[in-house]
Amino acid sequence: MENGGDTASTVTIKGILGLLMANVSDKEERRLISLGMGDPTAFSCFHTAAVAEDSVVESIRSRCFNGYAPTVGLPQTRLAIAGYLSRNLPYKLLSDDVYVTSGCTQAIELALSILARPGANILVPRPGFPIYELCAAFRHIEIRRYDLLPENGWEVDLKAVEALADSKTVAMVIINPGNPCGNVYSYQHLKKIAETAQRLKLPVIADEVYGHLAFGDNPFIPMGVFGSSVTVLTLGSLSKRWMVPGWRLGWFVTCDPNGFFKTPKTVERIKKYCDICGGPATFIQAAVPRILEQTEEIFHKRTISMLKQAADLCCKKIKEIPCMTCPQKPQGSMALMVKLNLSKVNDITDDIDFCFKLAQEESVIILPGLTVGLKNWVRITFAADPASLEEALDRVKSFAQRHTKKLIEQC
Predict the structure, then answer these.
(1) Which residues form the Aminotransferase class I/classII large domain (predicted)?
(2) Does the pLDDT at position 292 exceed 60?
(3) Statement: 50-294 belongs to CATH 3.40.640.10
């Protein structure tokens, strides 16, 4: 599988998307459609639950949450998150297991900060989320990438994990439901991951920011289910399931019944990190208990239904594009990976070139695969209204057809 080498450690999704936006032609009269960023709020069909909005308004109007919160999070917020996550676990989390963070990005930074030590390395998926590489670079942690296997539903190449790990490996990262691939791992595969991590004596960083956004054959299973056999650091947020990425409300949770991350020294280190960086706005934290406890299931079902329909439409339209192949229909999250067959097109050298020319000629933004670790692939975010998604992919089709190589007729 082609990969992007060390490029991911120097780029961010927002940075690349900013460059693509700047490349859109000023003369282009058609509206810009971006399928590059995992922010569903850009499309009016996706909005948060009424109870979430009411909870924030109530929190502000109470005038009780205008001051500082404890840096690890409000006690009632930590307790509510512990209860919410415990619904799907064979054991109960405590409020002390939960640290409230400014989105899942800060949870990633916290996880890597407490694991950092001289000479450390960490195993991350390829393709994956480039913030891990960026945070690791700041903490002088070596990144070692293991492949996800598109022909096997983007499952983890566990043989590669075993080959990459050594005495200085401090953790392996699992993203489930998958970003950027749209995969949802089965219980059996997660169990094999847990067994591998246990054998290697590695904690698992379980990035579950898309938790419960599953609409395929596999239900979402939190990695914390295996917490009794392997230490799991669960990262998540309100951002995706509640459609509020701008609220920056995330969590770092030690699903660790055996207490490896509950020693006084480790807890003190986590608290000191929180003292330095702080967390989300107090009034947002105060709204969390009601949001988690009172959001009606119909809201979540509606979201899942919309995402499934969008994923189906996306895959249908991609089949019409001559130089694109989708190896796996999305089973969850909001994005999928598509392979480019550049032998079928003229004047396009790689995925970066493809995306920049597409932006300039068609005012459509999609993310080059190199950004997430796979050269000559692209990531498409399908969390969009059907009309916008269809129009954008029709423009991609027109672009591909315009650049398609013409076969020379044989005499």
Answers:
(1) 32-396
(2) yes
(3) yes
